[in-house]
């Protein structure tokens, strides 16, 4: 039995030394040290030995096991190291090669304009309000003093889904919903940026989908002078402190009185050029005092509360601010156009 154990030890260590990979090494471990291995078979015959021989044979068996285990462990370390070296050799990186530049993304010019306007008005105490793009006719028109059949509806050629559901034509429904939530109690001070949709032919200055930013203030003793002061701050912050504004009478069903706001041309400084059509002024947005009917429909007492509202197209602001001559550039994803607005500039 002693000779057989020594023979198995030598046989196992010889196979361990010749093993070429970890799988083969594991097979050797199972074959010699497993429950069904030859060493276990030899030890089953210990019952035939005398009481004096059994302890000696047990110690020898443990020694043989330990020798084989140590051999396997040493060989495993060797094979794992060789495996790592082979992998490193196959995946060698030439550190002398020039690095590959990582191109970072840019903020879209429209995103920049919207965020800049949001930051400006948040700094003036406004909050940003949002609403659904698929809107009810009531909030899109009726709650804004545009009942069914009103001729001013034709000014906003709409995408209707059903008789009472449409894609919103402006962000004014957000104002109507916000006023309704306030249940006739002021103050209200919000801006509403978002996409709007109108059935329009796309060209250099028109699009069937565009971004609109509207503002609304309702409180006691709100006057036209508050509106003018707010718009003046906006114009100077967006287009330069030297900008001047003027308000021209206009008409919107949801405001009374209504105005169009112009800013002095930033190209010619009011002298007259092709951009301002030789007038020295550029139309920028529409505004006015909230119509009493709109206040009453939202639950506000029009004798106690007054307010003003304004609305602008983000694309128009961006076109003037960045000198873009075609609104379609904002939506065609031309990388040459977008790269002009790098965040590193």
TrEMBL record:
Its cofactor is Mg(2+). It is found in: Cytoplasm. Its EC number is 6.1.1.20. Mg(2+) binds at residue 256. It holds the Pfam family Phe_tRNA-synt_N. It comes from the Bacteria. Binds 2 magnesium ions per tetramer. The keyword Metal-binding applies. It catalyses: tRNA(Phe) + L-phenylalanine + ATP = L-phenylalanyl-tRNA(Phe) + AMP + diphosphate + H(+). Its main location: cytoplasm. Transmembrane segments: none annotated. GO terms for molecular function: phenylalanine-tRNA ligase activity. Belongs to the class-II aminoacyl-tRNA synthetase family. Phe-tRNA synthetase alpha subunit type 1 subfamily. This is Phenylalanine--tRNA ligase alpha subunit. It comes from Cytobacillus stercorigallinarum. The lineage of its organism: Bacteria, Bacillati, Bacillota, Bacilli, Bacillales. The gene is pheS.
């Amino acid at each position: 039995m002693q000779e057989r154990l020594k023979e198995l030890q030598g046989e196992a260590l010889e196979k361990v030394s010749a093993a070429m990979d970890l799988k083969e090494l594991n097979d050797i471990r199972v074959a010699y040290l497993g429950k069904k291995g030859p060493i276990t078979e030899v030890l089953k015959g210990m019952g035939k030995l005398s009481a004096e021989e059994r302890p000696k044979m047990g110690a020898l068996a443990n020694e043989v096991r330990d020798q084989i285990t140590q051999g396997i462990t040493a060989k495993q370390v060797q094979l794992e190291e060789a495996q790592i070296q082979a992998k490193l050799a196959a995946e060698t990186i030439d550190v002398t090669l020039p690095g590959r530049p990582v191109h970072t993304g840019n903020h879209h010019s429209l995103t920049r304009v919207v965020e800049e306007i949001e930051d400006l008005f948040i700094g003036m105490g406004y909050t940003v309000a949002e609403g659904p793009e698929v809107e009810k006719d009531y909030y899109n028109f009726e709650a804004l003093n545009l009942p069914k059949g009103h001729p001013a509806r034709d000014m906003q050629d709409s995408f209707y889904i059903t008789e009472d559901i449409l894609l919103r034509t402006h962000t004014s429904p957000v104002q109507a919903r916000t006023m309704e939530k306030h249940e006739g109690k002021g103050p209200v001070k919000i801006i509403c940026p978002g996409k709007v949709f109108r059935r329009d032919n796309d060209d250099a200055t028109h699009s069937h989908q565009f971004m609109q930013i509207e503002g609304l203030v309702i409180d006691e003793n709100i006057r036209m002078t508050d509106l003018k002061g707010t718009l003046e701050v906006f114009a100077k912050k967006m287009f330069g402190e030297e900008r001047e504004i003027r308000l021209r009478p206009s008409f919107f069903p949801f405001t009374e009185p209504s105005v169009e706001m112009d800013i002095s041309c930033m190209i010619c400084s009011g002298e007259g050029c092709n951009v301002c059509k030789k007038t020295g002024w550029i139309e920028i947005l529409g505004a006015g005092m909230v119509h009493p009917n709109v206040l009453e429909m939202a639950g506000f007492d029009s004798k106690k509360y007054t307010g003003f509202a304004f609305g602008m197209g983000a694309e128009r602001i961006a076109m003037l601010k960045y000198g873009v001559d075609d609104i379609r550039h904002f939506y065609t994803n031309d990388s040459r156009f977008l790269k002009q607005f790098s965040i590193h500039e």
